[in-house]
Design a protein that fits this description.
The chain is of the alpha+beta class. It is built from 5 helices and 4 strands, in the order ααβββαβαα.
Length: 114
């Protein structure tokens, strides 16, 4: 086997991975999970995170107290559509940033207060 045939095989393996931007996403399972989060928390807002070289587009749900959860959704359109179906306000994290309550909740969680 030559050098170039190994590189082609490695490239094929990268595109078949189950994580990263090419991962397969079960949108029904994601929606069910996020609906449970919305149903069990008050004041939930959605923040759409763009895809990167290692992750697909994700949506972060943040409750009024700062507790949060993140799930991959595949595309910005899917994220906005999902947020609409969940009935929560949706923001582009590149434009708004994350709310301070999320950082505060992370700090409390690290200290063991949350």
């Amino acid at each position: 086997m030559g050098w170039f045939s190994r590189r082609k095989a490695a490239r094929r393996e990268r595109t078949m991975r189950s994580d990263g931007p090419l991962m397969r996403i079960d949108l029904k399972a994601v929606e069910d999970y996020l609906q449970q989060f919305v149903d069990s928390h008050r004041g939930v807002e959605a923040y759409v995170e763009p895809s990167t070289s290692v992750t697909p587009t994700t949506v972060v749900l943040i409750a009024w107290d700062g507790e949060w959860t993140r799930r991959a959704v595949g595309s910005p359109k899917e994220a906005y559509d999902l947020s609409q179906r969940l009935g929560v306000p949706v923001y582009d994290v590149n434009k708004t940033g994350y709310p301070n309550r999320m950082r505060a909740w992370n700090s409390r969680k690290r200290r063991g207060d949350a």
